[in-house]
Design goal:
The chain is α+β, with helices and mostly antiparallel strands. β1 and β2 form a beta hairpin. The model has no long low-confidence stretch (mean pLDDT 87).
């Protein structure tokens, strides 16, 4: 409740009330939070106070905004330490969260030059193209694009990937990833990427490009766009 006799500023009291609702689970990841006008009515505060409360929650990473739609409760943030081979599914499960994927594309395509070069393919080879929204506890974390040479895998269907992770499917067909090389860069999301991630066009994203190997053979080219406020990479550096 808001106490007007309390020396704590009104905007902080409103912010604290909203934080309690988020921590208690009354407001869940992905839920739309009160708008400025709704906060004004609910707590009988000014528009300036309501806006400052929401701004503070955004700065703290508890809430994110989508232009034209409102403010929403932020999902879990994943802090990944770069040391060993990992999969998104295993990474999320290891943190006690539920890993989910929305499969957007599963098809055989003729690869473009970027994919041909990154997989060392012949010009006439085809690949499986798999696009997924990666999620943790119902919150969208990343837009994921994978290219797998058809020559190494007999079949990869939407049904397969609904019931198993991509690497599980490869393992079942005798293709066991044993090494990956990743590179990282900051990029602005284009219109399609932004719409799928629920962000504004041009929003900064962490793009992670991966080449995956099995016995020194390239078996996957993958690139993911992570929502910058929900994924963090940590690198441990040792002095020789």
């Amino acid at each position: 409740m808001i106490d007007r006799t309390n020396p704590i500023p009104m905007y902080l009291q409103v912010k604290n009330e909203l934080e309690k609702m988020i921590k208690s689970g009354e407001l869940k990841p992905g839920d739309r939070i009160y708008s400025e006008s709704e906060l004004c009515e609910k707590y009988n505060v000014s528009r300036i106070t309501a806006k400052k409360s929401l701004d503070e929650l955004v700065q703290d990473g508890c809430v994110y905004r989508i232009q034209g739609r409102g403010s929403f409760v932020q999902g879990p943030k994943i802090d990944h330490k770069l040391s060993n081979f990992y999969s998104f599914t295993e990474e999320v499960k290891a943190r006690g969260m539920i890993a989910q994927s929305i499969i957007l594309n599963t098809e055989i395509v003729v690869p473009d030059q970027e994919v041909i070069e990154n997989l060392n393919l012949e010009s006439n080879e085809k690949v499986y193209f798999i696009r997924r929204l990666r999620m943790a506890n119902d919150a969208i974390i990343a837009l994921d694009n994978s290219y797998i040479p058809c020559s190494i895998c007999e079949h990869l269907t939407k049904e397969d990937l609904t019931n198993h992770s991509l690497y599980e499917m490869l393992n079942m067909q005798g293709v066991v990833p044993d090494k990956a090389v990743e590179s990282f860069l900051a990029v602005g999301l284009n219109e399609e990427e932004a719409n799928l991630l629920g962000e504004k066009v041009g929003t900064a994203s962490l793009k992670v490009c991966r080449k995956t190997y099995c016995k020194n053979r390239l078996i996957e080219y993958n690139y993911r766009f992570y929502k910058g406020n929900q994924y963090c990479y940590t690198v441990e550096l040792n002095v020789k």
